[in-house]
Amino acid sequence: MTPHAPTPDLTPGLPIPLLRRAVGSTVSTMRPDTSAEYVDHNAEAARLERTAGLYPEDAEHLLLQAAAHLELADDRPRATAFYDRLLSSETPLENPFLVRALKAANLWEYGHEAEAKAIIAGVRAASPRDPAPWVIVAESLESHDELEAAQQTFTEAATHLLTDVPEPPYATHPVLFGRHRVRRMLGLPHDNWDALADTLHSSPVSLDELHDPKRVWSLGSDNPAELEAEISRLRAELGTYREALSRPFPVAVLHWPAPELAELVSAYPSLAAEYPSHEEHLATIESSLRELAASGTPNLGIVTGTVPSYEAFAASEGASPGDASLLPQYATTLAARGRAEAWPPERGASCWCGSGRGYGECHGLT
């Protein structure tokens, strides 16, 4: 049940004139419009592994995608080898618990139940702050009919991540929805967390209906009304899944920290027209993102550039780093490598500009 995002198609998803009016030449768009039916998962895994060799700083994200493709190709032992490769690396991982959770879910799928359960117990004991490992291990338990353990895991996650949080971040919604689903299958009464899940759920079909344990029987029904109701439920679920899958592919705006921007403009004076000053650069990023949000553009993000990385990208394209037309392509490449941070930051999070202040006290001020 562990979801994996498809490999992105880098074709722009918005008209270039709109993007250039909004943010100049430092914005990229991405959309996942490649059908999974036509993906050669083994080839994609090999491509991602090669890319990880070129960009070791992004190896964690790229090898996780590669492992996902191997799971989809039903080559689960090789996927485990990728997880082990990351866990044994001397380079510290950004999210080691996510890697462990994915490894556990994968191991269980090809018969290594005891090892998977041991890893799951370790993830739960570590109480990570990232919701994703919690969801993965809980759904793994759920998919193997360990419903009570799954319910306990979801509950631990909700208690750890959401106690005294005024507004649940988007990333925590699957914790509440998964907990609601498992408790419905166990026949447990609604509690406060279930009520919160109901309020966060935006589909026209209620969570109680979507998570009804008796739904499986309606699929074999001869009653047209029951079948029509099930089609409505499936459409609602599909809409939710599509929304979730769209989030990793942002309209990404390129951000340069002050030292990097000074080095960039000093080395390539032709780019000074793009960046008159660092203060103006930061202000343009925020105003452009707000303009895009106001126009209805969803899934906005920021990627942070470095001069060595940009120069390496330019070399790979056989172009001069002083060519401003490379900037949106560079932003797209960073986003494809998983470097985009969602905008706006979650409530209470630090500002994207790196000032160390909260977003609401910095560029989030209205």
Draw up the topology in text:
Layout: H1 16-23, E1 27-28, H2 41-54, H3 59-72, H4 76-87, H5 96-109, H6 113-126, H7 131-143, H8 147-162, H9 173-186, H10 192-200, H11 207-210, H12 215-218, H13 224-246, E2 251-255, H14 258-267, H15 278-294, E3 300-304, H16 307-317, H17 326-336, E4 341-343
Parallel strand pairs: 2-3
Antiparallel strand pairs: 1-2, 3-4
Helix pairs in contact: 2-3, 3-4, 4-5, 5-6, 5-7, 7-8, 7-9, 8-9, 9-10
Organism: Streptomyces umbrinus
InterPro entries: SEC_C_motif, TPR-like_helical_dom_sf
Protein name: Preprotein translocase subunit SecA
Largest sheet, in brief, is: 4 strands, mixed
Q: Total helix count?
A: 17
As a percent range, the share of strand residues is: under 5%
H/E element sequence: HEHHHHHHHHHHHHEHHEHHE
Outline the low-pLDDT stretches. Answer: 1-25, 28-36
End-to-end Cα distance, whole Å, is: 41 Å
Kindly state the number of beta strands: 4
Read across the widest sheet, the strand sequence of neighbours is: 1-2-3-4
Structural class, by secondary structure, is: mainly alpha
Average pLDDT taken over every residue? 81
Fraction of residues in H or I helices = 55-70%
* Morphology call: globular
Radius of gyration: 22 Å
Protein name: Preprotein translocase subunit SecA
Pfam families: SEC-C (PF02810)
InterPro entries: SEC_C_motif, TPR-like_helical_dom_sf
